Every structure is written in structure tokens, then in C-alpha cells.
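Q: Is it fine to ask for two folds in a single conversation?
A: Yes, each is treated on its own. Send the first.
Q: Here.
A: Result:
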Amino acid sequence: MGKADMGESLQNELDAMAREISETYEELTLLYRLSQKFSTLLDMDELLHLVNNEIFEQLNVDKIFLLLIDEESGNLKIASSSLEISGGDISDCAKITTGLAMDATMGLKLILDNKVAKNSPDFIFNKGETGKVICTPLKVKNKPIGTLNIYRESDKDDFTSKDFKLVEAIANQAASSIANCRLYKEMHDMLLGIIKSLISTLEAKTAFGSGHSGRTAIYSKAIADEMGLSNEEKEDLQISAILHDVGKIGLNDSTLESGSDLTTDEMVKLMEHPLKGSSIIKSIKRLGTVTPGIMHHHEFFDGSGYPDGLKGNAIPLQARIIAVANDFEKNAYILNRKGLTNEMAVEKIKGNSGTLYDPDVVRAFLTAHEKNTIPKKGL
């Protein structure tokens, strides 16, 4: 081999090595980016939406199905898909059966098949033609929790080993994040259950009866839906609404039972409950974002409320929403006990728009009431 040939061969090897290094760098960069994105999400729906988006962005695919093992039944269920049939049982879906997906999940093995036969029981495309599929298990500590399945129609390029590695990497990141979401939800539900039990015990002694905070939370969410708040903001709002009266712990039973018929001393102590409630909840690190609604739900838009006399948009939005939901619930409760509708309570909210209540919040409240997401007859 001449020097020229040797030089060309060496150059080809260097070029190939440079391409491999470049591809490896791109893969590592992608994995780092995915890790950063996935690790910050604690909402399952947002996480699964991101997984779908990343696969569509990185690979030229036609369909995606992410299946999770239902913890009660043990069956694979569709958690998310590009066809928007989430929540269905896999056996109910005309386009998927348990074949490859179950093999990949229970066998903890990756499957690549670029020639899924026409009318195969493993996957039936819309027109019944041959297709291409990658099924990769979702596993945590080598235990299957589901499978990620991606599909291409027959007229597209075959999946490559590079595609295979990429899907496996996304699946590994997704599985870890799914486990974190589930753990977070379990802890969140347990904490919320304890709080609700505590509030229920407290409310049983009040003039407005058990369920006031729960109903306030439902009305608050209905308002937030109309205002376009994010899922995270709505979750914080609901927890804040459930906890808005937690500062009443420690008040004597006669104060709680008296309603509006209070002595001056009892009224002063009652008006301290936003500050006390905020102080109690601040000590729980996870609940730091819900304290504004607890602290300021008795502030009024014109500055005449308490404890700080805040005015207008200086009042946190969380508190402005709870103020409307809370006052409406109290008035509606009294009317409903008399067998009446909520219309007088609605008119009171409408009549105090711009004085006691934020006009934007009132508009959202009225829209929700018109749609009956805030029921006209009460809960």
C-alpha cells in the first residue's frame, strides 16, 4: 500500500472516529438534557406529555404508546399515546394487543422488529399494512412497571441500532421519573389525607359544618380553571383553600359555634386565625407555596380587610380567589339549608366586585357559576 493510500485510509479512520465522537457527544448531551427535564417534573401527565414530545422530536415515528402496569389489576393500561386514548385498558384498544408489549414488559427485554407482519396480533396499523416497531420495557430496580412502544409505517426507514439505543435511554429516564411521580403522589395524598381529617374535626364544631373547606377548594378550582391557571398553581390553590381556616385550631368551642354572634374579645381572637394558620403551615417545607392564600384570604380588594390591609393586586392571587370562594360558600350554605338556590349569594359576590373582591376573579366566578361548575344548588 502506497503512502497516498495509507494516508487516505488513516484520514478515513480519523473521519469515522470524529463522527463517532460527535454522535457520542450528541447522545450524552441529549441524555443530560432529558435527565434535567424529567427530574424536575412531579406531575405524571406533564411527564408523559414530555416523553411523547421528545420521541416525536428525536425520531420520525407515527405512533407512540406508553403502557403502565396497573398496580391493582396487574394489567397493562395505556397511560399516554399519540392517539389520545389514555386511560384505556390495552385489551380494549383495537390497534394494540398484549403481544410484543407484554413480551417486552414481563421479559424485561427490548424488541426491535422492522417487519411486523400484515394482520399481526402484535400490532394492527390503520390500513393493516406491515409496520416497524420498537418495544422497550420501563423498569425500576429491574422490576417492570410498563413498556414504551413506538411505531413507523412500512414506507418509512427501518429503525436502526442508534434509534434502539435512543429509545432505551428515554425509557430508562422516563421509568425513573415515573417512579418519582408515583412516590410524590403517595406522599402528597397521605399528607393531604391527614390535613383533611384534621380540618374535618375542626369544622364539625363550626357554624358552617363539616365540608366548608372542601367546598371552598372546589369553588376555588372552578374559578382557577376559568382564569387559566397552571396545574401547579391550581394544586397549590386547592391545598391553600382546604387549609385556609387551619389557624382556628385552638379557638374555644363557643367561638367556633357562635358564627357571627361574637363578643369583641372573641372577634379579635378569630381575626388572628390567618396569621396563626400561616405560621402553622410555614413550618411544613412542602407547603410553603400555599401560605399566601391562608395568610390573606380575608383581605379585601379596596384595602379594608385583614390582617395587613392589602389592596388590589398587592393581595396574592391565591388569596383573592379564596376570598370569593370562601364568602360564596358561607352564604350559599345558609341559603341551601333553607332550601333556596345560591342566587342571593351570587348577587352578593357580583355586587361587591371592585370593592371587596377582584373584578377579574368575580368574572371567572360568574362564568363558572353559569357553567354550573360552581353548582347553582350547592354541593
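Q: Second one now.
A: Result:
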Amino acid sequence: MDNLINIGIPSKGRLRVDVLKIFKKKKLKIISERGERDLIGSIENKPYVKILYLHAREIIERLGDNSLDVGFSGFDLLKESGVNVQNKINVVKKLSFGRANLVVAIPDLGLMFRLSLILRKLLLNSEILRKKELGLQLNIQI
């Protein structure tokens, strides 16, 4: 599918639990056929979304090589990555979970329009995304 949205979620630990709570709170049911040990999932009634459970560091790497459209990872891991990777990633939202700083990030390729379309499809009829009238500025509330 050409318009498949790949979302990276940490495969284990507190970050995974907290990210999954965000999806649950927003009534986005993640389906994983084999349960918590599965590496691939989807969102119910969103056939264009693929969930990839990855190590938090791999999420940063895959955002950097553009094989993920959206990823949740630690801000510290982004800052520890190489400058060439950091320059390719745009932090969209910083989230605080306990003492950890989590970020929602996308590859920074000047694709704010693409992000707008991705989030619009993913969060259709949701309060999370409100596109402003001028330009493609986004106001994301999670």
C-alpha cells in the first residue's frame, strides 16, 4: 500500500507502556496478533497504519533513514545520535512520562504537508489534530 503510515513504538519498558496509554486514551485500539511479544501491529479500522515495535534507539535510526513516518522515543537518544541523524528528524511534541522526556518525531524532509496528511488520516475525527487556516501549521495535543 503506497500510503501506509509506519509508526515506531518502543518494544518494551516504561516508554512502551506510556505510549500505548496515549493510543488507548484516544480510543485508537492497537491490534497485535501475538500480544506483547509481537513486533508488528495495526490500529483497528485504520488499515493504512502499521505499528512497528522497535528498540527506542532503532526508532531514532529509522526516522533518520526515513523508514518510519512517526516515532516515539527518548529525547536523550535523539541527542545522543549523530548530528547527521539529528538534522533529519523534526521533534513534533515533547511528552513527559515520569522523569523521562519522550518525543514524537518525524523525518525532517520539509514534509509538513505529508505530516498533515498522515496525522489527518491517523487521527480522523479526533481532537488531537487541528489544522490552522494559514499554511500547514499544526497544533498537536496529546
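Q: Anything structural to flag on that second result?
A: Two points. The chain has one domain: 5-140. The longest helix spans residues 13-25.
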